[in-house]
């Protein structure tokens, strides 16, 4: 059994976080590409499919990057790794 501060535990948690966020990225990308054009109601004067593609997906992608950076900072601190910057 591995202790929580071993490199294997750190790598496992890093991979789990990365896989989860990449899955969310894939889901958002596919949903926007496949379902976006079928959403034909106006949202702030623009077709909602256009708004979701141009603005909504970009906001979700920025949030994914922010969550990854925050989670990795916390994971690094929990495992006693120094900050890289």
TrEMBL record:
The keyword Transmembrane helix applies. It comes from Pseudaquabacterium pictum. Keywords: Membrane, Transmembrane, Transmembrane helix. It comes from the Bacteria. InterPro entries: Na_symporter_ssu. Pfam families: DUF4212. Residues 9-80 form the Sodium symporter small subunit domain. This is Sodium symporter small subunit domain-containing protein. The chain crosses the membrane at residues 50-71.
């Amino acid at each position: 059994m591995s202790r929580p501060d071993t490199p294997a535990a750190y790598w496992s948690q890093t991979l789990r976080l990365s896989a989860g966020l990449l899955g969310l990225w894939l889901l958002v990308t596919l949903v926007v590409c496949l379902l976006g054009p079928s959403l034909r109601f106006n949202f702030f004067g623009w077709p909602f499919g256009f708004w979701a593609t141009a603005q909504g997906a970009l906001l979700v992608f920025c949030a994914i990057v922010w969550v990854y950076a925050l989670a990795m900072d916390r994971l690094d601190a929990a495992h006693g790794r120094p900050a890289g910057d």
